[in-house]
Amino acid sequence: MNSKVRGYLKVYYNSSNGYNCALAVRKGSTSLYSIKLKLCVYNAARTKYGNCKYDGYSKRNHWYSGPLYVYARHRCLYVKASINTDGAHSGELTGKKVHCG
Fold first, then answer.
1. What pLDDT, in 10s, does the model give residues 15-27?
2. Would you tell me how many other CB atoms lie within 10 Å of the CB of residue 10?
3. Which is deepest, 22, 23, 34, 72, by most CB within 10 Å?
4. Cα 96 to the chain's mean position, in Å?
5. Which pLDDT does position 12 carry in this prediction?
């Protein structure tokens, strides 16, 4: 298993307008094969998510993906970032029911 840290997933909330923002950023100056980001909003019961935004699914050689914005006042987020630096090893971070407000 390759445990190298490839990047970071950042999630922010603006309490004045109810919007969340997500950004995936690669770490360091390593080469980059692809970077992907998905940001979704859970329903009020927190049982399923929808209203998804995507970025980076056709991009290559970028050092970031996003920012993505969704309105999620009084809701939880589903976020997923995938950073692949060499075409063979992907680092993924998934957050389910995060930034609940």
1. 999 999 999 988 7
2. 15
3. 22
4. 11
5. 93
pTM of the model: 0.83
Count the Cβ atoms, other than its own, within 10 Å of residue 25: 16
State the Rg of the chain over Cα. Answer: 14
Q: Where are the beta strands (DSSP E) in 1-101?
A: 7-14, 19-26, 34-42, 49-55, 64-71, 77-84, 90-98
Give the model confidence (pLDDT) of 46-82 as tens digits: 999 998 999 976 666 678 889 999 999 999 999 999 8
Amino acid sitting at position 42: Y
d(CA 35, CA 47): 28
